[in-house]
Amino acid sequence: MTGTDHAERSAPSRRVPGIDFVLALASALVLLAAAPARSPGQPAKSPAGTYQFNDTHFHLTNYIQEGISARQYLAIMGDRVGRSALFGIPLQQQWSYRISGNQAPTYYLDSDARLYYYSFTDAAIAMEYKALTPAEQARFDPMITGFNPTDMYAADHIRRVLQTFPGVFSGIGEFTIHKEFVSSKVAGDVASLTDPALDRVLDFAAEVGLVVLIHNDVDRPFPRKGEPPVFLAQFKDLLKRHPKNSIIWAHAGVGRIIQPVHDHAAMLESILSDPVCAHVCFDLSWDEVAKYVVSSPEATQRAAELLEKYPGRFLFGTDVVAPKDPQAYYAVYEMYQPLWKLLTPGTRDKVLKQNYERIFDAGRRSARAWEKAHPLHKG
């Protein structure tokens, strides 16, 4: 849910929350009407065989629902990125005049005011996607994020979005359960790994076949030395309760303050080696994660050994938020260069390209089949 701070903070302030989405929606409808007719089966690829990676984790908009358009993102992707997951941020930072006056916050650390779930993000992402040509659409995998995971009706929101925008979404996420500084700011109930509402969300995602990208810090900020990660056991229990899902653990449990736990690689391997968790993968996203992976030759070597042992279980993502230019976007990929250089060509290709295509292709196919079997009944 995070990503590079400067990208999140670069958005203009002093705007009414949501107004940009209204404008974007109107613009999208115009573009959709004007889009040239293309055959639905027409292949849409980045230059064949030349792209460097697929992006598992990308935010088109930030914490005040501002960002760039999907077509602007395509221009940044160019011929270096094949495909990308596409989602906004499901939380809106409230602008409370009582707290910050005329200083409009653009990030969740800018204000003590609450965050609240902003469900319109799903409609906005859908319209951005639908405004593209079929060839352009094929390079994106939109994700549903605008649901409250403490609400037993959250699964119904996901169902409603799929039926309202058939042919669009491939998964759910990135959505957050435990996250440093964020969880306590969200208005209403605090999300929990033991909440039946979350089980209901994952049960429905499994029914449809949606990819699940979940953010859950493995520990609390500033834990006591020697104590086990406070959320690890609960998270493992969640994974084992939902073996039919395709789950990607964002950032492998690391946060901005949440550092890798003691022998983090062994912790990950306890999941990777468990046959009950064969449905679980990890994304290597975010510059905050990259800095640990490349912090020393020993750390990079240990990461490379883990990826070589489980090449089908890791995916790369930038976790960049509404980048203003290509340099801001590609910085995370470049940070990982010491790791990429240590990997064998086969493992590197799986982590950067093939695992994404395998997982998200399956999500697309399953979602389209479910939508066909469950059309929205009107009237």
How would you describe this protein?
With 379 residues, the protein is of the alpha/beta class. The protein has one domain: Alpha-Beta Barrel (TIM Barrel). Helix content is 41%, strand content 13%. The chain is built from 15 helices and 12 strands. It has helices at residues 5-9, 19-34, 70-77, 97-100, 120-130, 134-137, 154-164, 196-208, 232-241, 264-272, 287-293, 297-309, 326-335, 337-342, 345-373; strands at residues 53-55, 58-59, 81-86, 91-93, 115-117, 140-144, 171-176, 211-215, 246-250, 280-285, 314-317, 320-321. The strands form 3 sheets. It has an 8-stranded parallel beta sheet, sandwiched between helices. A two-stranded parallel ribbon has the order 2-12. The chain has a two-stranded antiparallel sheet with strand order 4-5. Helix 7 (154-164) links the parallel strand 6 (140-144) and strand 7. Helix 2 packs parallel to helix 5 (120-130) and helix 7 packs parallel to helix 8 (196-208). The radius of gyration is 20 Å and the shape is globular. The two termini are 38 Å apart. Mean pLDDT is 87; it is low at 1-45.
